[in-house]
């Protein structure tokens, strides 16, 4: 490098070193404030839940609103989630249960929401994930509830009906499916492992590119990656996390048939969540078997100006040809309009369960 270039770079690098020092000092100052918050809560007998989803959502939205760039809001959100995760871990690392093994999209969703300082607890089934939090062995669960291509995740929906857990938040994860293998060429692939939903999401690509390969459904994409790492001639459909964890090459990237393939996850805990200013409320309801019963269930939302953003039916587990309805509405249950609608709904419904009010996902 010539001397002029070195001199020009030296000034900028000195600024970077100074700024890094300021960032380090401020990060530790923030961490001390977070510790003080924990101490104050303990003094007033409110130390049971150190994580407040509504407060985190408010912080992230405020930072996005005042962000002048050039860093995009997505990067700002990622950075500050990690800062908050590290600060929380000084008090107590949060235990997060999710459908394992490590390398699943559920792990990616858990890390996206809680940061890398959380204590990740991969489990063998969605049932086990619910039980881990219900028993107090984990603080929160992260479970898939619906995919933009394949629809609802039935097991999660069924378990929500009977659980005592509350929905505390949601995570929206863009799903990029990759073909992973130890092999170096598509022609060497004779078997493709993946979760049934991922196989369905890549159905047309597989028909075009690997029409002769056997498609084998397994419990998770991470399990598929494990098999691909062990068996010659095998490949897995999975995400970036599985590729890195099981040291697999990407033979093809983003092979999902729908370019906007997205999965929504729910965050479940043992406490209610306060209002953040932009919230959803989820509930389950059923109608009596009479004419106009479903209309009577929906009318309170319209009458009180409450917008419904999801309505889905599932067979009731205790009666043949009876159905329950899963509903998401905009607003927190403490807001006057939502409270009035839910009160009226309670008088019309044969069954009503409020699953929780929680902040809308912050991207």
Rounded mean pLDDT score: 92
Radius of gyration: 24 Å
Distance between the termini: 42 Å
Helices, by number, come to 12
Helix and strand succession? Answer: HHHEHEHEEHEEEHHEHEHEEEHEEHE
Strand fraction band? 25-35%
Structural class: alpha/beta
What does this structure look like?
The model has no long low-confidence stretch (mean pLDDT 92). The radius of gyration is 24 Å and the shape is globular. By secondary structure, it is of the alpha/beta class. Helix 1 packs across helix 3 (73-91). The chain is 43% helix and 25% strand. Strands 1, 2, 3, 4, 5 and 11 form a six-stranded mixed β-sheet that branches. A hairpin with a 3-residue loop joins strand 3 (140-147) and strand 4 (151-152). Among the domains are: 1-47; 178-252, Periplasmic binding protein-like II (D-Maltodextrin-Binding Protein, domain 2, 3-Layer(aba) Sandwich); 279-359, Alpha-Beta Plaits (2-Layer Sandwich). It starts with a helix and ends with a strand. Pathway: Amino-acid biosynthesis; L-phenylalanine biosynthesis; phenylpyruvate from prephenate: step 1/1; Metabolic intermediate biosynthesis; prephenate biosynthesis; prephenate from chorismate: step 1/1. Residues 95-270 form the Prephenate dehydratase domain. Residues 282-359 form the ACT domain. This is Bifunctional chorismate mutase/prephenate dehydratase. GO terms for molecular function: prephenate dehydratase activity.
């Amino acid at each position: 490098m010539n001397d002029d270039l070195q001199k020009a770079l030296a000034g900028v690098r000195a600024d970077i070193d100074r700024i890094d020092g300021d960032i380090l000092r401020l990060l530790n100052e923030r961490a001390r404030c977070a510790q003080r918050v924990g101490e104050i809560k303990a003094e007033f007998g409110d130390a049971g839940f150190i994580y407040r989803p509504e407060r985190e959502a408010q912080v992230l939205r405020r930072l996005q609103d005042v962000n002048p760039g050039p860093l995009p809001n997505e990067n700002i959100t990622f950075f500050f989630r990690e800062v908050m995760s590290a600060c929380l871990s000084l008090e107590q690392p949060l235990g997060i249960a999710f459908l394992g093994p490590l390398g699943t999209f559920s792990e990616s969703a858990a890390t996206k929401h809680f940061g890398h300082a959380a204590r990740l607890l991969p489990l063998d089934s969605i049932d086990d994930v619910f039980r881990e939090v219900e028993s107090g062995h984990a603080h929160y669960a992260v479970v898939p509830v619906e995919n933009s291509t394949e629809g609802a995740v039935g097991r999660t929906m069924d378990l929500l009906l009977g659980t005592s857990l509350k929905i505390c938040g949601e995570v929206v994860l863009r799903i990029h499916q990759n073909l992973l293998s130890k092999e170096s060429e598509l022609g060497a692939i004779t078997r493709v492992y993946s979760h049934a939903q991922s196989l369905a999401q890549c159905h047309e690509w597989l028909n075009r590119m690997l029409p002769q390969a056997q498609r084998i459904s397994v419990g998770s994409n991470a399990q598929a990656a494990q098999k691909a790492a062990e068996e010659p001639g095998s490949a897995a459909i999975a995400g970036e996390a599985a590729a890195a964890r099981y040291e697999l090459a990407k033979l093809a990237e983003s092979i999902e048939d729908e370019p906007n393939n997205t999965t929504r996850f729910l965050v479940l805990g043992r406490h209610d969540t306060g209002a953040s200013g932009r919230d959803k409320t989820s509930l389950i309801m059923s109608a009596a078997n009479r004419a106009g019963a479903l209309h009577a269930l929906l009318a309170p939302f319209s009458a009180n100006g409450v917008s419904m953003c999801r309505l889905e039916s599932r067979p009731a587990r205790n009666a043949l040809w009876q159905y329950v309805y899963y509903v998401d509405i905009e607003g927190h249950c403490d807001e006057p309009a939502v409270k009035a609608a839910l009160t009226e709904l309670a008088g019309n419904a044969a069954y009503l369960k409020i699953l929780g009010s929680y902040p809308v996902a912050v991207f």
